[in-house]
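Dear Dr. H.,

I hope your travels went smoothly. While you were away I took the liberty of generating a structure for the chain from your last submission, since the lab meeting agenda had it listed for discussion. I wanted you to have the full record in hand beforehand rather than looking at slides cold. The sequence, exactly as received, is reproduced here:
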Amino acid sequence: MKEEKYKKDLEDIKEIMNRSSRFVSLSGMSGISAGVIALIGAYAAHKMVYSQQLGIKLLEGLVPIRNVESLVLIALATLIAAISAAVFFTVRKTKSQNQKVWDYQTQRLIVNLFIPLLTGGILCLMLLFKGFLALLAPLTLIFYGLALVNASKFTLHEIRSLGLIQIILGLIAINFIGHGLLFWSLGFGLMHILYGIIMQVRYK
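The corresponding predicted structure, in token form, is as follows:
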């Protein structure tokens, strides 16, 4: 009986130490919602690229400016919707656990997530303005994966695995230029949904 009590005390101490050093309130629903939104965004971009036969022009960097603007708007709308949904579900879970939404652990997580993410975003915008559109999907996957790996030191360890998968998908996508939307859907869509389901089951 005493042994069980000691074991329970040790588990409680371990959980408290973990909470004090890492942000552990990431919601599985955040991943699922972000994945579904990413798939919707990829489908919208796919309809635009193939309904207007822009596939070859994407490879050649000859896409008319109005089409580039439309693709960027789809990407921005997808990004904003995915982040909003992720924040909503994470904040809801944090409050349900009586944890602070904005504290030192949250700040460390966001700073370390956004350093590689903003670097990749700026690089992709520079490539976009120079017409290298075909590289955008692989590079967004690679830099997003690097951001997750970098941030994983300050949150749940599953984030690191998700980041490594995104990096691998991005590297493979470079060898299949012209199929970026497919890899984008796998990385940002399917992988997020699978990750969210695993998190929901493991940490519910």
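Two observations you may find useful: The helical segments are 2-21, 28-51, 55-60, 65-96, 104-129, 136-151, 158-174, 180-203. Residues 116 and 195 are 21 Å apart (CA to CA).

With kind regards,
E. W.
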